[in-house]
Write a structure and sequence with these properties.
The chain has eleven helices and eleven strands. With 314 residues, the chain is α/β, with parallel strands linked by helices. Helix 1 crosses helix 7, helix 3 packs across helix 4 and helix 6 packs across helix 7.
């Protein structure tokens, strides 16, 4: 039975690969640089001397997630997309918790490396959008334009949640979270499609190739430090985030999917939309666009439309 299952998985993976090969994708190149004592992986598309765009991926994701958008860009760009610390091919921090301010400091170091003297065009998805928007408020002179894809931040917290949050963080410290493994890479692709039913076979196969790697036991594991699953002991303070957003001087485009709204996970979509509009209003020069037929992973669902909106805005 196990042999039959492995043969089936191999055939399924080969079928995915053959379908994937029919689609022409823009080639990327990998670079490894030292960022704040960690070996960072950075993916590049396009000519080195073309106008630069920096793309920042979300939580439990990696830079290859932008491949489909890059394929749809019509202009000549040099796209620079790092794997955040502890994701993809970047080095794990070695700590038991990942702290949000470290992403800000990592981003600043990356921008200093690739664009030390010029303001930049930033595009961030989910976590990446949150990092980019807070950074744009803290360093307004460093950001020329900002596109936030489903980066409308988390649900607001209240002080009463603090005891339970600290208790949960302590519990996870005693019993650290782990990540599931898979018998074959095709199972990783299937899992991605379970999370996002709009994801095609070809795109799921591509993402699985870059999202997972085989471990010493021959199983496929996500290329992410399990410590990312440990919650922060600190509550999410929306007023602080909105204060940062209010300091942004660059034009900002908020792009949201039709289905879940910016990761807020609100069951009432109308209320969720109103909340997004309220938050975006904190940014002096901002606009919102909605992508039909897309959910939170809109760069996978409707890359053509997302790429069109990005280039139209830039």
């Amino acid at each position: 039975m196990k042999l039959r299952r492995r043969l089936y998985n191999c055939r399924l993976a080969l079928n995915f690969a053959n379908k994937f090969a029919r689609f022409k994708m823009k080639p990327f190149r990998s670079e490894f640089i030292q960022i704040r004592k960690l070996r960072y992986h950075v993916r590049h598309w396009g000519r080195e001397d073309a106008p630069k765009i920096f793309m920042l991926h979300g939580w439990m994701d990696m830079s290859a997630s932008f491949q489909f958008i890059v394929d749809c860009l019509q202009r000549d760009w040099h796209v620079i997309a790092p794997d955040w610390r502890g994701f993809g091919l970047s080095e794990w921090s070695g700590n038991d918790t990942y702290w949000f301010p470290d992403y800000l400091a990592d981003l600043e170091a990356i921008l200093k490396h690739y664009s030390p003297d010029s303001a930049v065009k930033l595009i961030g998805h989910s976590l990446g959008g949150n990092v980019a928007s807070v950074y744009a408020g803290a360093r307004p002179h460093r950001v020329e334009k900002l596109v936030s894809l489903e980066g409308g931040s988390l649900l607001e917290s209240s002080p009463e949640q603090a005891p339970g949050r600290y208790a949960q963080w302590l519990d996870q410290d005693n019993d650290p979270p782990g990540l599931r493994t898979y018998a074959a890479q095709a199972e990783v692709a299937a899992r991605l499609q379970k999370n996002n039913p709009r994801l095609t076979d070809e795109r799921a196969a591509f993402l699985a190739q870059h999202w997972s790697a085989q471990n010493e036991q021959g199983e496929w594991a996500l290329m992410a430090d399990p410590a990312h699953r440990k919650i922060s002991p600190y509550l999410y303070r929306l007023d602080e985030v909105l204060s940062c957003w209010g300091a942004i001087t660059a034009p900002v485009l908020m792009v949201v999917g039709e289905f879940p709204l910016l990761g807020l996970r609100m069951s009432d979509r109308k209320a969720g939309r109103a909340e997004i509009e309220f938050r975006t209003a904190a940014i002096p020069n901002s606009a919102i666009k909605t992508v039909a037929g897309a959910g939170h992973m809109l760069q996978h669902d409707q890359p053509e439309e997302v790429a069109r909106l990005i280039e139209e805005f830039l």
